[in-house]
Amino acid sequence: MFIDAVTPPPIEMVIQEEQICTFDRKIGDVTGDGIDDFVYLTGHKKSPDAIYQEGITISVVDGVTNEVTEQVLDLNGGYGSALFLGDFNQDEISDIYVSISSGGSGNINYYYIYSFKDKTPVQLLDYQSLNQLYEWSVRFLDHYQVEVINDTLNQTYELNLSFKNKEFLQKYYDSEGKTREGVEGEVLPLGGLSPIMTPRGKGAYSLLSSQVIIGTAMVDHLGVIEIYLTYQEGKFIPYDMVIGEQGNIK
């Protein structure tokens, strides 16, 4: 049951704590009793106008009893934290997805998914598990080619950089297209993790992750790795992968 006309009560009314900040809020049944709950993302800031968020916590207020269940996230803090509710673990109850920005130049982000079924927080995903999913190597080849190697699966993909502008290519190749000495690349940690709807029905979601492939400088984007994941047997399992030049993947 979704309550369109109901406005969530201020979290300060049900959580007695000084200087608590509400970063985001949603309404939906996350406990599985068929009644909508009030879901908050709360924490602290150094000052009212600060943008850095600390002590980020998921707070679920039961839609019937106002009982509060909390889960503190295991990171120091970040920027622009946000909530999304959807069924990721296929139990027909909405789970709680949280995204938080690191605020750095690499556009690296942190993600969590929790089930609050029966008012018991259970972590379904954290960003570190996806960052550790595969080991990657990036190697420049002559004639404006780059090898992206999935060392975990022993699979190699090639990128063609010939479309890049002259200034960019001169950093990595000489006038004959030969690779300069000492140039190398890497795959950055998780930059994006988007819920994607599945054929299972309304409110059912899988995930699409993205990681940027860079050269020697953070701003030198070579391409992107996109991995599709679905929840099976207690964890998110990759079922498809696409690697291509930045901007050519849709």
Automatic annotation (TrEMBL):
Domain of life: Bacteria
InterPro entries: Integrin_alpha_N (IPR028994)
Name assigned to this protein: VCBS repeat-containing protein
Organism: Turicibacter faecis
